# Entry
Amino acid sequence: MSFNIPKSDKKRVVIVGGGFGGLKLANKLRNSDFQVVLIDKNNYHQFPPLIYQIASSGIEPSSISFPFRKIFQRRKDFYFRMAEVRSIFPEHKIVQTSIGKISYDYLVLAAGTTTNFFGNKSIEEGAMPMKNVSEAMGLQNALLDNFERALTCATEQERQELLNIVIVGGGATGVEIAGALSEMKNFVVPKDYPDLPNSLVNIYLIEAGGALLPSMSRESSESVEKFLRRMGVNVLLNKMVTEYKENKVYLKDGSTIATRTFIWVSGVTATPIDNMPANVIGRGNRIVVDEYNMVEGVEGVFCIGDQSIMPKGDPAWEGGHPQLAQVAIQQGALLAENIKRLERGKELKPFRYRNLGTMATVGRNRAVAEFKSIKMAGFIAWVMWLVVHLRSILGVRNKIIVFYNWMINYFTYGQSLRLILYAKKAKEVIDREERLAGSHWGDDLKSRGVDYNT
Amino acid sequence: MSFNIPKSDKKRVVIVGGGFGGLKLANKLRNSDFQVVLIDKNNYHQFPPLIYQIASSGIEPSSISFPFRKIFQRRKDFYFRMAEVRSIFPEHKIVQTSIGKISYDYLVLAAGTTTNFFGNKSIEEGAMPMKNVSEAMGLQNALLDNFERALTCATEQERQELLNIVIVGGGATGVEIAGALSEMKNFVVPKDYPDLPNSLVNIYLIEAGGALLPSMSRESSESVEKFLRRMGVNVLLNKMVTEYKENKVYLKDGSTIATRTFIWVSGVTATPIDNMPANVIGRGNRIVVDEYNMVEGVEGVFCIGDQSIMPKGDPAWEGGHPQLAQVAIQQGALLAENIKRLERGKELKPFRYRNLGTMATVGRNRAVAEFKSIKMAGFIAWVMWLVVHLRSILGVRNKIIVFYNWMINYFTYGQSLRLILYAKKAKEVIDREERLAGSHWGDDLKSRGVDYNT
# Structure
């Protein structure tokens, strides 16, 4: 019996990545004349805007992770495959994945970005990124573990390393995790660790540029900075981190900060894919697309969302769009329409980004929000932030649980989620990961007689 | 500044293990004249009766894990320490832990049991135990991962290994996980994996003895066997597993079953502690106690729950009590009273186990329950099972979420918890685990000048 994806009369759309863009596209292709194959590293869709709240023990991972197979239950002509995509062979219309080759008629790259360490090995080794649910769970464990150890460690030096938290990157993620951790310091530590003076817990937020939230207005940046300083966060602007070694963060100005909790949210780089022509790789490793999200010169291949850049085409956004959920969602929706139009020989619609606004929250009462000419800061912005994010979470159950957690948090900080939880890895899984980490992609399968579904 | 546990005028009770027994004891010592120190490997209390539902994606880990620091918030003269206890030095009234030495006036061992592999190395290496939340999370990941891989694997042989599930041990845990997984096979696989015939998923439940649930009555055993067979579980009685290698389970009768999901719930052995006199180690490595849970000949040391055995003293239970939550809870409650009596020079009360009955569930409609002379099997028993377990879960929030999950499961099997979730380990945590795994317990701390709180 073969379990390959069946050849069909319908043309096959292969979507790489089930984030905001890929998921929207897959949903919009429902009841279309295409066979849809969705490939993702994980078996679930995740909701990046709230990942930092996993790290701060505010919500559980399952509330913002939604299994693809559940999302697409009963969907006809749809195939999900859990795999990593490494390479593309456009001349054969094939992608090479960790589970073998998959052929396509249309290929849509929507694999997003990964953390950018700017080639700095010492930072890459020691820093904790927070790009996905898995990393946030690890960070949560490390944070709670460091608090426990601070009570019993050997020296004052070690204690200060364990209680200093350094966050590098003043974008929305950095600002939000700094706010959440300062609330943990102010409201949770005194109750959970009565024998640990919370004055020993120091939170640093370091930004290389001159302002927090560089993509927002000066007013918003200043409001956020004021909010954070009031909450006791040490905001350091115009400071470059150059190295991390022996539990110390080194700054360019020669100063150092001792810490074992070194959170790196300073930038992203597009997820790489082998064999793409060099001329379509743009700023931040992003794949250059035209106004229809087509990769020029590579037939049948599209790229959407954070992984792509559209330097020309959208008149209001010369040079490219910001890497935001809304851009990916709107591009996914339009591309579904355009792929259908392509098949029918109709003219394609160019992408025009409709800016729905941007927001960032700082703790439980304050946020900043910008919609066209309207700028808000404070409580009303925070309520809007809550509503917008709650609406965007998939599934009624998840909305209810997240809302419940937020309310408990709002009134009492009394959640019971401060758990150091590890999944014990089964030997099977470890073996496979080691195999994947090696250079045997595909070869491993080929050596066992498989040439999957080309 | 010293963060040692302060010396106090009050006598110190050190409790090792925050399971059912240890937690009850700690709670009952509230407002007593003792300083209480609770030591546990994890920072949370877990609820073993529902751990199998984590493995079957029925509930989330956070619903049955409750942080100790939250449980004991605002408690006076109480100290929680996350550590493992290795050794006891009764002549100095000190326990050696992974974070250094801790002195006691009264020591209560309540560290429960670990999985017993009966010295079989091939089984220990390849099998997946399911004794705690962490192992159940790992098993859940492995199960879901194996389903994904079954769709894309190289050979029919490999596919069958991935889809066969072998559970060894016909006690309550084995019966319950077999029931939950057979429901997954019958109701979830057809919806989540439409291209995977669920006839390929085979569930084996292997028991070395002649009946399932050997500690219950023959009627209950037979009811459960009938329920499971009807649900499609292959129940194998009087079969000994001798080995596990190359993805095959070997039985004593010469037959083999191919599987990569080899779940071992076949027995337990008491958590060992070094330096206990040999004469107090009883059956199953359990520590022999008298009718007051005192360890004879070791002054000031008690043992309760699964880690202990009381061969004499309780007239109705000559030879020892069963290793059940109720025994641990009742012993914890009585010991709190007896320690107070000891201090006041009053006569101690001997332990008499009040059997509240035992139950086990098989899927979503059937259970068996026994209370004294009453035996029940079927739907009513199942409803009782639900009520008893829901009542026992700590925290209103957790009760609500578990109830919600159960109802969704009951009506639709439509949860969205089938997530392959790993916490990415921070380098710090890995380093410390490696240190712990080595033989440097305590030495590591001593070499750094710490001699913790003796």
Q: What stands out?
A: Chain B has two domains: 11-115+269-343, 121-266. Chain B touches chain A through 81 residues (CB under 8 Å). The CA atoms of residues 378 and 410 of chain B lie 15 Å apart.
